[in-house]
């Protein structure tokens, strides 16, 4: 890199260190000056058995270290890993998977959205004691132990589970591993090898081996604590943990509005070469790496406000590091360079040490505060820090701003074998993005199981606590970006933060529906004339950008034909030539504009209908929604249609009757200027035509006890009175209109009373539609036979859904009304989206929000299950108790984390036998194996396990020939399909 080259943004962070379960807890620990040191936990090794204060052979001089509380917890189901594979995996791999997921979420991106992307994975680690124990246990060696261990697999497993296609590599340079990984990742992004990178460091202490080494080398602190740069420094205290950062080009991050913790301006890596010992640090090499990093970043040492040092607390190491820092930073500067080391808090985390320091520095720059350095009250006088231009932070220090308000810091990490790394950081550029209140929004939460959904709802409820209402849109948008897409899901529309939190809390009190759902099958019902009113859709226009934009499109398409803004008439109550929205010439274009905008806005957000139905004039917007008509074509037709009907002589009547079509047929036949205008149900028809004739029929029906209601209309629509309008419409409306296009969704025709193909919707159809009866009941019955899961009314109020309910034609479909009349607020539209998302539809959320609301807010990371533990095995027990006098034989089955489950035995029938085989291979209980469970995604069956399954099926089904894996894989994806396959091959008797 040269000065001016692309800077790299740190956009996401997650970590787990001793005493700190996440990055917020880590920061609290730092600013409070706390530490995570404890005695050696029992599951690791017997601290007392290995302890010898004198540090005798094969012993350690301390019983303390910084240990994590629950590194054995792993949410195997979330990642689709079988219990058997999880138990064989290095816990470091398991820790990395969960931390990587949460770090990507913290960057404002749903991890699933990275699938197929050129995202790199760079993991720093310097030991794998799990592999040491398990790969030397030859009798217990399995295929999963092979794939569950190895440095490369630590990185590769993250790439695999997130489906990332960029570089994937593990780095071992001892203590500097993860900071070197950061340097390599930043360079890979600049070189174009990847667009972004997940960088991690991980360390886990399972045996006393390195502790014994440190003791024998004279490097181990008796109290197990690092005291960096302190007069009390007496050696290393070991630590562990996992840290992950997500890196991206700064320009890309800013363009996508991602929040940025800090910016990597430059970095350098070098080696001591042949110095005064392979394990001894070199002052000259450390000076060199600092100088190179500053030159590449284009900054001067005096620009650096603080250095997060390597600071192990060893006498030689601290002295050499301070002299190297002093040689670079000791010149004239406005104030001393602050110095610290996170190792005082969490111990020397070895392969994760560099990433821990980097995370501390990024959080410090983000908050403009440098946490105190533990043990700084006893600063070592031998180091002469003041003379070196350095000062330990004895308390939390407000970081001084440099030019343009920028604060800079740096991080050092030095490897045991001489590989050194230094990274230069700057505070993130200040970007003013004021929150934009108002509008509509939807909060989303998703998880892989019902229990996980509840955990994550609780976390989100806490996250929104105390947030100002002006951020509600940003919070909603952030959940849509990050917390959506998993199998179990819930969403809610909210108009205030308090309401959002209350509804989230309410979900925790109530029973959340969590049945498995497929993709919803949605039908749009387009309302007919008579549903209009002045101001219809006004609230949604104010609240919903896509509706507003699509309404403007419809307005522009209609204006040449109307000579006026239809939005001004329909939504704002204005008039044209003394006529308002109830005048037919304006009513029909107004309804079309609203319906077009509503359907198109839903489509913009990912809600595209599988079927449509339009009642009379509603068919024009329905045809647009299916692509049969373009907006321009439909606008010209609807404007002409309304104008021609308006020009007819006034008069005529329309009367709703609670009777069947057969019951009124004879009465209608006696009145030649009256017809049945609509059949809305088995006992619901509308009569239309000459007012005298229609009223005579109505009177006769009323005498027989039928309910009749005369509608307020200007004309008798869908009657013989419309004949002239139909002729003129055929002559005038179709010039320049192309042949009808194929429909993209099923079109339930209320002219035909059945589904009609796109090519049926020709000019003759639209002419016929003017006088033909509206056969709503027949069309709705045809639609119902397709069993839609959701019926969405597209219009200014709910009308058709009520007709369908009375006719018994809604089946089990949910009924949604995004604009429910004059009382609509816009929240109903959001509630419609929330329902569809909760029921399994993936939506394109961005356009729902205003520009100022499309700003990501950091949310709590996914709350993984921690009830399943994968730790003890025969190998770890034998390995860790080798020097203990007490002998105890423990088998792997006895200490299996899932050993409480019943023993699985083969049943008598083929179903029982197959289920037992699947359960045995994956270490599941048979009760876990639901028919819809997917072998690969849900149960973690990889190619190894599928081969084992083929062998077992051959045995339990008593086949004469083995089942080829290449035959099994394409035909079987779920447990149910496997059972069907097994039954088939068993009956064939050919194998």
Strand order of the largest sheet: 5-4-6-7-1-8-15-14-9-10-12
Unreliable stretches: 881-908
CATH level-two architecture of the largest domain: 3-Layer(aba) Sandwich
CATH H-level homologous superfamily name of the largest domain: Thiolase/Chalcone synthase
Mean pLDDT: 89
Measured on Cα atoms, how large is the radius of gyration? Answer: 36 Å
Count the domains. Answer: 5
Count of DSSP-assigned helices: 35
The tally of strands reads 27
Q: How is the CATH topology of the largest domain named? A: Peroxisomal Thiolase, Chain A, domain 1
Strand content: 5-15%
Provide the CATH top-level class of the largest domain: Alpha Beta
Shape: elongated
Biggest sheet record: 11 strands, mixed
Gap from first CA to last CA: 63 Å
Q: Level of helix content?
A: 25-40%
SS content category:
alpha/beta
């Amino acid at each position: 890199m040269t000065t001016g080259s692309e800077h790299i943004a740190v956009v996401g962070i997650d970590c787990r260190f001793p005493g700190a379960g996440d990055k917020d807890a880590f920061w609290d620990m730092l600013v409070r000056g706390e530490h995570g040191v404890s005695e050696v936990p029992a599951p690791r090794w017997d601290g007392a058995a290995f302890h010898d204060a004198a540090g005798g052979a094969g012993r350690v001089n301390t019983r303390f270290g910084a240990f994590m509380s629950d590194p054995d917890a792993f949410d195997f189901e979330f990642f689709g890993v079988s219990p058997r594979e999880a138990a064989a995996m290095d816990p470091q791999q398991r820790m990395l998977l969960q931390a990587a997921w949460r770090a990507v979420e913290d960057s404002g991106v749903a991890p699933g959205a990275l699938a197929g992307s050129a995202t790199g994975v760079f993991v720093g680690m310097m030991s794998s004691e799990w592999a040491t124990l398990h790969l030397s246990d030859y009798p217990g060696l399995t295929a999963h132990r092979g794939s569950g261990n190895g440095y490369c697999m630590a990185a590769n497993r993250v790439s695999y589970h997130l489906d990332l296609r960029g570089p994937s590599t593990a780095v071992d340079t001892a203590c500097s591993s993860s900071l070197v990984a950061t340097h390599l990742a930043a360079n890979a992004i600049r070189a174009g090898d990847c667009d972004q990178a997940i960088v991690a460091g991980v360390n886990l202490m399972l045996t006393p081996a390195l502790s014994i080494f440190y003791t024998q080398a004279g490097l181990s602190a008796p109290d197990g604590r690092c005291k960096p740069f302190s007069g009390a420094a007496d050696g290393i205290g070991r630590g562990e943990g996992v840290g992950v950062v997500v890196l991206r080009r700064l320009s890309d991050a800013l363009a996508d509005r991602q929040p940025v913790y800090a910016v990597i301006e430059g970095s350098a890596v070098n080696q001591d070469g042949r110095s005064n010992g392979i394990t001894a640090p070199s002052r000259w090499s450390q000076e060199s790496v600092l100088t190179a990093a500053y030159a590449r970043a284009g900054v001067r040492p005096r620009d650096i406000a603080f250095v997060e040092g390597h600071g192990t607390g060893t006498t030689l190491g601290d002295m050499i590091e301070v002299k190297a820092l002093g040689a670079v930073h000791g010149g004239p500067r406005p104030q001393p360079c602050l110095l610290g080391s996170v190792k005082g808090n969490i111990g020397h985390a070895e392969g994760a040490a560099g990433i821990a320091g980097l995370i501390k520095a990024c959080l410090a720059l983000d908050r403009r505060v440098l946490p105190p350095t533990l043990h700084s009250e006893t600063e070592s006088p031998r180091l002469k820090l003041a003379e070196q231009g350095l000062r330990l932070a004895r308390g939390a220090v407000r970081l001084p701003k440099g030019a343009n308000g920028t604060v800079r810091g740096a991080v050092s990490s030095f490897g045991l074998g001489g590989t050194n790394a230094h990274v230069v950081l700057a505070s993130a550029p200040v970007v003013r993005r004021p929150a934009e209140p108002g509008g509509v929004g939807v909060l989303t939460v998703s998880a892989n199981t019902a229990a996980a959904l509840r955990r994550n709802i609780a976390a989100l409820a806490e996250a929104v606590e105390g947030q100002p209402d002006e951020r509600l849109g940003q919070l909603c948008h952030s959940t849509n970006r990050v917390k959506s897409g998993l199998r179990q899901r819930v969403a809610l529309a909210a108009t205030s933060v308090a309401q959002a939190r209350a509804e989230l809390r309410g979900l925790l009190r109530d029973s959340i529906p969590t049945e498995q759902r497929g993709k919803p099958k949605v039908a749009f019902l387009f309302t007919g004339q008579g549903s209009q009113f002045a101001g219809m859709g006004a609230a949604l226009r104010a609240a919903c950008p896509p509706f507003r934009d699509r309404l403007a499109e419809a307005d522009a398409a209609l204006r040449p034909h109307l000579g006026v803004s239809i939005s001004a008439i329909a939504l704002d109550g204005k008039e044209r030539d003394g006529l308002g929205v109830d005048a037919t010439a304006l009513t029909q274009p107004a309804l079309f504009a609203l319906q077009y905008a509503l359907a198109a806005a839903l489509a913009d957000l990912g809600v595209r209908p599988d079927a449509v139905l339009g009642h009379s004039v509603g068919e024009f917007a329905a045809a647009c929604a299916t692509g049969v008509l373009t907006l321009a074509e439909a606008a010209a037709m609807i404007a002409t249609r309304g104008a021609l009907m308006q020009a007819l002589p006034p008069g005529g009547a329309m009367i709703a009757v609670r009777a069947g079509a057969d019951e009124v047929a004879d009465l209608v036949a006696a009145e030649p200027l009256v017809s049945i205008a609509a059949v809305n149900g088995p006992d619901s028809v509308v009569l239309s035509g000459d007012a005298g004739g229609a009223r005579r029929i109505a009177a006769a029906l009323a005498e027989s006890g039928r309910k009749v209601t005369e509608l307020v209309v200007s004309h008798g629509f869908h009657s013989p009175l419309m004949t002239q309008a139909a002729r003129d419409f055929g002559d005038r409306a179709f010039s320049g209109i192309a042949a009808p296009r194929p429909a993209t969704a099923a079109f339930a025709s209320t002219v035909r009373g059945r589904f009609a193909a796109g090519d049926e919707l020709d000019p003759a159809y639209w002419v016929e539609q003017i006088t033909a009866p509206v056969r709503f009941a027949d069309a709705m019955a045809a639609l119902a036979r397709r069993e839609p899961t959701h019926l969405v009314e597209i219009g200014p109020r709910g009308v058709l859904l009520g007709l369908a309910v009375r006719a018994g034609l809604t089946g089990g479909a949910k009924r949604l009304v995004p604009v429910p009349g004059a009382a609509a607020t816009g929240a109903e539209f959001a509630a419609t989206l929330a329902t569809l998302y909760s029921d399994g539809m993936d939506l394109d959320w961005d356009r729902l929000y205003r520009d100022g609301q499309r700003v990501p807010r950091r949310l709590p990371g996914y709350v993984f299950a921690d009830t399943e533990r994968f730790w003890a095995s025969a190998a770890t027990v034998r390995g860790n108790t080798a020097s203990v006098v007490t002998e105890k034989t423990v088998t792997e089955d006895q200490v299996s984390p899932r050993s409480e489950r019943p023993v699985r035995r083969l049943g008598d029938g083929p179903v029982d036998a197959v289920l037992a085989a699947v359960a045995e291979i994956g270490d599941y209980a048979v009760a876990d194996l639901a028919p819809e469970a997917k072998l690969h995604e849900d149960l973690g069956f990889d190619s190894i396990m599928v081969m084992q399954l083929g062998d077992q099926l051959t045995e339990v089904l008593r086949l004469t020939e083995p089942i080829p894996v290449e035959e099994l894989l394409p035909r079987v994806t779920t447990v149910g399909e496997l059972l069907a396959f097994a039954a088939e091959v068993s009956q064939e008797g050919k194998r």
